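User: Here's a protein and a ligand (pyridoxal-5'-phosphate). What would the complex look like?
Assistant: Let me lay out the input and then the predicted complex.
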Amino acid sequence: MGYTETECQRAIADFPSLARTINGNPIAYLDGPGGTQVPESVLAAIRDSYIDRNANFDGMFQTSIDVTAAVAATRAAVADFIGADSGADIAFGANMTTLNFALSHALVRGMTPGDEVVITQLDHEANRGPWLNLAERGIVVREVTLNPGGHLELDDLVEKVNAKTRVVALGMASNSIGTVTALTQAQALCAEYGAYLVVDAVHYAAHFPLDVLSLGVDFLLCSAYKFYGPHVGILYSRKGLLDQIEPDHLRTQKSVAPYRIETGTLNHAALAGVTAAIEYIEQWGNGETRRERLVSAMAALHHYETNLARHYFAEVKDISGVSVWGPEFDASPRAPTVSITIANQTPEQVAAELAQSGLQIWHGHFYAIKVLEVLGLADSGGLLRVGVSMYNTRQEIDRLLEGIAAIANRSK
Ligand SMILES: Cc1ncc(COP(=O)(O)O)c(C=O)c1O
């Protein structure tokens, strides 16, 4: 089964928030990279969790037995979504940023002053800040350079990884300009020097089928609210690895994976929503197993979203006064996330004006502030970012293009 406009119309009916209007116009959520909308089945799963399983883990009574099983089922669903072996490799937390801080605290315990960590200029601060903070502990933090075309300089990565490197922290897809970075080189360098490869797949997981085992990563993070679920952070650890590191933890906490890095009580209701979000995605694919259906669904959604984003990219770049930032749509993988600036207008002004007609579009730095500093956009209000999700339509993109053309013409 493919995913075309027909399937998209069916999906739209599943998302209650899409029924809203703003000033008489249908709302258009083009802010998926900041967080996607949720289908009715996710809302129902969260509600049911509070009614049927509102208890803590490992009690002998029914609701506790049920919630323990439900959270294990969420781990198994996430494992299928990202291609891990089993739910034992999947830990949860409040969000990706919190889990990455927990991971950095654990990994620094195995480092000594003078050890090195490599981060990139393309990453979201959530995959920079936790590692930059290690400078306080005498760790040397090196940054891979971003070039003006919006790609990382992979030669610079080769230059910066060496025998002192303990961690390479790298994003798979940029939430600000859509660049996808292949992990092959980073993986090979980490294997050569015995460094951990920590991958931020928050933006990537929302738009591509993921296969953590074939990527050969050590740790991979993503966040369910970017793929139609609630706010839950996800940490995959290569089998056996979490048990070898020393996260912050209580002595009363289970000390084995996946619980080892999970401090306090998880958001059980949100986790039920994560299972439902994955089941929601799965229904748009084919195959014998859930994993096969998820891979096929994500490939179909990717195809649909990319066509819309490519159309937007091609049209918007021809509007006089518009500059598009980030890579072209060519044969290489790219996320359906396109950022622009308009001459003589700040992104904030443009976003505010478009919002009047129901077009919900983010402006600014999207926490990937280093990208803007490198591209010279930090002092001019950043970017206007459009992200395409499974419920967006060609009609919405055309409405947006009209709105942008009107603003750009007037601002000459
Ligand atoms: C690429 C990327 N990494 C990390 C994050 C942080 O995720 P969270 O909000 O779950 O901490 C985001 C959120 O926007 C993101 O887009």
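Summary: The chain has two domains: 5-37+290-407, 43-282.
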